[in-house]
């Protein structure tokens, strides 16, 4: 099974490596070791030209410019559009159907990601590319990044590898892709599909995910549409046992909720909920003395059993102090096709074909 990331410490760049890439009209430095075939891309290449639509590459600027005039994807990205909002769209590209595209995208990405394992077997992956379309010219688009996902995963992974290309980083676009990846894991239909990114995460990946999870939970606890202001009551109590079937999606934050319940409402793994709450610093020491102290065996210290409580005022303070915008990076209305909203509750209807 491939792993999304191996070393938390980037290896120093080999002196013999492709140093810069030209993507469309952008020139920028590479970060990590190239795995381009050496007979096509010499190891001391200073400038590699990469097509911004299909990721074909060339060391020869003239050949590259010639290609961009005839590129088969120059006006439309490959695959099927699954999301579209405010100029940003996400397209699902099957690595088997678009093998060359997926291989070239992977080779390019490797220059900015410090692991190799997911880059060879593109056929068993789906690629979700993030596209920005020029509002004044619908034929002019750029691919800003992507995430990949294993078609069949035995682990609860909703994402294998995620990358926003360097010129487009620090614009909250990673959060947009993460939000889309959670939606596409289909946890809203079936709680058994709740998942998260493939582990282990790189250092940068972990930082990005923890922030994404923190905001996702804060948004749920503070902004839920059906929520009533519960004052400053204790919001989360891990002790409370709930059964999966009794919980409804996005049920309003009660005075007391379990970590599992937050996970079910946000599509997050219990471990990730605990990670986020702890990182936010909003967890208060539990005062529940009734907790069985029967054993200190290992089974007793799993995430399922951890006891935490959180106050809403602390969550609000966290939001204020970090100037977090609670707006969801992903708009439900932006999803298309099978992922489109079909009723007010965001539950997909299966009866539409029988209607009329
Ligand atoms: Zn091209």
TrEMBL record:
Alphabetical keyword list: Acetylation, Acyltransferase, Metal-binding, Nucleus, Transcription, Transcription regulation, Transferase, Zinc, Zinc-finger
Top-tier EC class: transferase
Entry keyword annotation includes Transmembrane helix: no
Protein origin, superkingdom: Eukaryota
All residue ranges annotated as the MYST-type HAT domain in the record: 13-320
Coiled coil start-end: none
GO MF annotation: an example: zinc ion binding
Entry EC number(s): 2.3.1.48
CC annotations in GO: NuA4 histone acetyltransferase complex; nucleus
Region named Disordered: 234-262, 285-311
GO aspect biological process, one term: regulation of DNA-templated transcription
Signal sequence extent: none
Locations listed in the record: Nucleus
Residue numbers annotated as active site: 198
Described purpose of this protein according to its UniProt entry: Catalytic component of the NuA4 histone acetyltransferase (HAT) complex which is involved in epigenetic transcriptional activation of selected genes principally by acetylation of nucleosomal histones H4, H3, H2B, H2A and H2A variant H2A.Z. Acetylates histone H4 to form H4K5ac, H4K8ac, H4K12ac and H4K16ac, histone H3 to form H3K14ac, and histone H2A to form H2AK4ac and H2AK7ac. The NuA4 complex is involved in the DNA damage response and is required for chromosome segregation. The NuA4 complex plays a direct role in repair of DNA double-strand breaks (DSBs) through homologous recombination.
Protein family per UniProt: Belongs to the MYST (SAS/MOZ) family.
The protein's name: histone acetyltransferase
Source organism: Aspergillus sclerotialis
């Amino acid at each position: 099974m491939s792993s999304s990331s191996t070393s938390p410490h980037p290896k120093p760049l080999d002196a013999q490596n492709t140093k810069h890439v030209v993507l469309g009209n952008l020139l920028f430095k590479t970060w990590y070791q190239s795995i381009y075939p050496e007979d096509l891309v010499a190891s001391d290449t200073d400038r590699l030209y990469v097509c911004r639509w299909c990721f074909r590459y060339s060391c020869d600027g003239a050949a590259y410019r010639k290609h961009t005039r005839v590129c088969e994807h120059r006006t439309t990205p490959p695959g099927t559009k699954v999301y579209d909002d405010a100029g940003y769209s996400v397209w699902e590209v099957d690595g088997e159907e678009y093998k060359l595209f997926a291989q070239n995208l992977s080779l390019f990405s490797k220059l900015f990601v410090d692991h190799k394992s997911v880059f060879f077997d593109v056929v068993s992956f789906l690629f979700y590319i993030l596209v920005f379309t020029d509002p004044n010219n619908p034929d002019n688009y750029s691919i800003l990044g992507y995430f990949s996902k294993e078609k069949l995963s035995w682990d609860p992974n909703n994402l294998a590898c995620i990358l926003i290309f360097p010129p487009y980083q620090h614009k909250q676009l990673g959060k947009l892709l993460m939000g889309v990846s959670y939606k596409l894991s289909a946890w809203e239909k079936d709680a058994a599909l709740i998942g998260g990114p493939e582990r282990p995460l790189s250092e940068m990946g972990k930082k990005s995910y923890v922030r994404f999870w923190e905001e996702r939970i804060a948004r749920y606890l503070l902004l839920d549409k059906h929520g009533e202001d519960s004052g400053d009551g204790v919001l989360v109590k891990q002790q409370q046992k709930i059964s999966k079937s009794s919980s409804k999606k996005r049920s309003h934050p009660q005075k007391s909720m379990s970590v599992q319940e937050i996970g079910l409402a946000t599509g997050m793994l219990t471990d990730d909920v605990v990670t986020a709450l702890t990182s936010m610093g909003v967890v208060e020491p539990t005062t529940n003395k009734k907790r069985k102290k029967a054993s200190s065996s290992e089974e007793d210290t799993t995430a399922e059993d951890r006891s935490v409580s959180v106050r809403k005022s602390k969550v609000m303070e966290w939001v204020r102090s970090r100037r977090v915008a609670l707006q969801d990076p992903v708009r439900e209305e932006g999803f298309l096709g099978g992922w489109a909203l079909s009723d007010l509750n965001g539950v997909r209807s299966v009866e539409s074909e029988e209607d009329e």
